[in-house]
Amino acid sequence: MNHSVFLDPPFSDDERRRRVYEGQLVVYSPRVSSVELCAFARQMIEEAFSPLDPRTAQHHMEVDCYAELLNRLKPAFIHHPESKARVRALLADLGCDPKNTYFDVPRMRSSTSDGYLTTGIAYAWHPHRDTWYSAPPCQINWWMPIYEIEPDNAMAFHPRYFSRGLANSSSGYDYYEWNQAHRGDHVAQYTKTDPRPLPRPTEPVEMDPQLRLIVPVGGVIVFSAAQLHSSVPNTSGVTRFSTDFRTVHLDDVAAGRGAPNVDSRCTGTTMRDYLRMTDLSRIPEDVVTQYDDRTGTSGRLVYEPGQS
Ligand SMILES: [Fe+2]
Asked: Which one of 116, 210, 306, 307 is most buried, by most CB atoms within 10 A?
């Protein structure tokens, strides 16, 4: 199967979603709305690390203090009303229909260099699909670097696995149980090892060839939740900061459209996390139940503020 990277395509949102569900990657050049979202994130980061340079602060801080700082900074960004406002502006700018597009709160990610902190609050992601973590097949991911990136601190895609299943441990993952048991402040304590049972491949992954898209600050990478991706082991000497968020379109949710599921076996759904662009309302429960399974009776159904 061929995979393409579309740079600044003239697609409508319908066409873009269709292409993304086929496993294509879409990249947008920086635009005012995306640069503003990154600038807001950068301002929060710089205030938190002041007077240190956030990209090199890891070389001057004890790792426990660093993890604690991130544990305050990340939820503050995630749940800031300004973050949501800027995500909505970006999505509208990129042609999403505000009445039918739902997004989740933007995350802030950090990838430290030289193995300084690769667990807990700054987890270095092994190859995974978000669909192993209860994302629906119609989920679309939007990813942006907050500072300049380079091949040694980027994110990697493994597109050959888009249509090829990989043995993995997603059958042990239930979203509602996860929300209850594994989210919260305690994640910052994992500065050396990470005991959380994150779904992962259970067979060797052919990591190469892999694709690293190096976009400028405010450049936007759009990809399917079913796309296998990972954090590049950071050897750049500086910490990478990025932000990302996810969307679903109500028509696709209702019609069951999306990327093919080649190997995901998790239970529960993230469908209750998304907020409508217009009024921040949730997806109607009668639609959500199409995605619910027998596990919908225990645990915590929704990702809530303060959780990492
Ligand atoms: Fe991911």
From this structure: 210
- Nearest alpha carbon to residue 28 among 211, 220, 240, 243: 220
Q: How far apart are the first and last CA of the chain?
A: 36
Residue where the block lists tokens 């932000």: 243
Please state whether the predicted TM-score (pTM) of the whole model is above 0.90. yes
User: What is the distance in A from the centroid of ligand 1 to the CA of 232?
Assistant: 12
Q: How far is the CA of 48 from the centre of ligand 1 (A)?
A: 25
Distance 44 CA to ligand 1 centre (A): 23
Distance, CA 131 to ligand 1 centroid (Å)? Answer: 9
Express each pLDDT in 248-306 by its tens digit.
Answer: 999 999 999 999 999 999 999 999 999 999 999 999 999 999 998 866 566 778 776 55
Determine the distance separating the centroid of ligand 1 and the alpha carbon of 51, expressed in angstroms: 31
Would you tell me how many other CB atoms lie within 10 Å of the CB of residue 294?
A: 9
Whole-number Å distance, alpha carbon 31 to ligand 1 midpoint, is 24
Structure tokens at 177: 């149980």
Please compute Rg for the chain using Cα positions. Answer: 18
